[in-house]
Design a protein that fits this description.
This protein has 382 residues and is α+β, with helices and mostly antiparallel strands. Helix content is 64%, strand content 9%. The chain has ten helices and five strands; from the N terminus they run H-H-H-H-H-H-H-H-E-H-E-E-H-E-E.
Length: 382
């Protein structure tokens, strides 16, 4: 029922338009009857007017043939002039200029014939021809202008819809990027902190005969680590774009290259034997973003070493200078035992994305003879 409403409305509008044109044709016939010389042509005018109004019903489906037929009728009798004029405007509204112009020219020519057959009072034929072509040119221009305006509005509407869709896509991509950044940051920060806690908790579990002082120290480290993990979790959730912000909430700065040594010492206190070789020249000129990425690389490497090769020594080499780039290499022996903490396998994936965003490269895998190697190269402009 609802789908039929537009069709009924279109039909009602079409019938109303035909009725209005028919009224104009009737007025034209009545006006011609004021001249007694036209009385004998009354029947012809009525027939032409009725036929012309009937043809108007097919104007929407077959505009060009209908317009030509109405032009022929208009050449025979002025009663067809209103329907013929409406046909000219319809064609101009619906077709391009190369199609509408010949139809308008044919209509104007047909009315010239009408002017020869049925001259209007004291109006010279030359002025009739001027008015005839001026009217049809105006109808053609009006129709083309309306058509161009509709096309422009349609184009602007399409652009707006495309821009809205593009904006929606960008928002979705931005949200996905923010979630990825937050997940990567949570992994980098919390995995390291929780692996340290697991190391101390393992010491408490497997060495219950330790002295009360050592047990108290390990418990204190666990308690402090839990508080730090909670603080870092809050910071990560509140900061989604760490590349745009230099300091985290609460006044604590983001980790930099200068914090590497503290990171190494923290891992040593947790029981990991680390051989740290620092060959970096002029570390103060290292860009902050590069230093932060380097910190995350070492952090992830040490975390994985504690997970998968607990108790084995780690070799860390960091070298570089302005213009040559920064190179980081971390190796540790392989372990066939059960990992200290389960891993999701996404840490190195996120780390690779981070390094690529920084313009560097990351390589990792097993080395001949056993063991695991993590190697990264970061740009360092001169």
């Amino acid at each position: 029922m609802v789908s039929c409403l537009p069709a009924r409305r279109n039909l009602a509008a079409e019938v109303s338009g035909v009725a209005a044109i028919g009224l104009l044709s009737a007025l034209t016939i009545v006006g011609r009857m004021s001249d007694p010389a036209h009385h004998k042509w009354l029947a012809l005018d009525i027939v032409v007017g009725v036929v012309a109004c009937g043809l108007m019903l097919g104007l929407r489906r077959h505009p060009i043939p209908t317009a030509i037929a109405l032009a022929v009728l208009a050449a025979v009798s002025p009663a067809a002039t209103p329907p013929s004029t409406a046909a000219t405007l319809t064609v101009a509204l619906r077709f391009p200029l190369r199609t509408a112009a010949p139809v308008a020219l044919f209509q104007a020519t047909a009315h010239l014939v009408q002017g020869l057959l049925w001259p209007i009072g004291n109006l010279p034929f030359l002025w009739f021809a001027v008015l005839d072509f001026a009217v049809h040119a105006a109808l053609l221009g009006w129709g083309q202008w309306v058509q161009a305006r509709q096309q422009l509005l349609s184009s602007l509407r399409e652009r707006a819809q495309r821009a809205e869709a593009e904006q929606g896509r960008r928002v979705a991509e931005a949200r996905t990027l923010e979630r990825t950044q937050m997940a990567r940051e949570m992994h980098d920060v919390l995995a390291h902190r929780l692996s340290l806690l697991a190391t101390y908790a393992g010491a408490l579990e497997y060495r219950p005969d330790s002295s009360p002082e050592k047990l108290a120290k390990a418990a204190g480290v666990i308690r402090t680590g839990v508080h730090q993990a909670l603080d870092e979790l809050r910071e990560v959730i509140s900061v989604l774009r760490d590349t745009e912000i230099d300091d985290l909430p609460g006044g604590r700065p983001q980790p930099t290259f200068g914090d590497l040594r503290a990171l190494v010492e923290e891992s040593r206190e947790a029981g990991t034997a680390i051989s740290y070789d620092d060959r970096v020249a002029d570390a103060t000129s290292l860009p902050p973003a590069t230093g932060r990425t380097a910190y995350r690389i070492v952090q992830e490497g040490l975390t994985n070493a504690r997970k998968h090769a607990a108790g084995h020594p780690v070799t860390l080499t960091v070298a570089g200078r302005p213009g040559d780039g920064l190179r980081i290499e971390l190796t540790n022996p392989a372990s066939n035992g059960t990992p200290l903490t389960p891993g999701s396998g996404t840490g190195l994936v996120g780390l690779t994305e981070r390094v690529q965003l920084a313009g560097g490269t990351l390589d990792h895998g097993r080395v001949p003879g056993g063991g695991f190697r993590l190697e990264a190269s970061l740009p360092w402009p001169p």
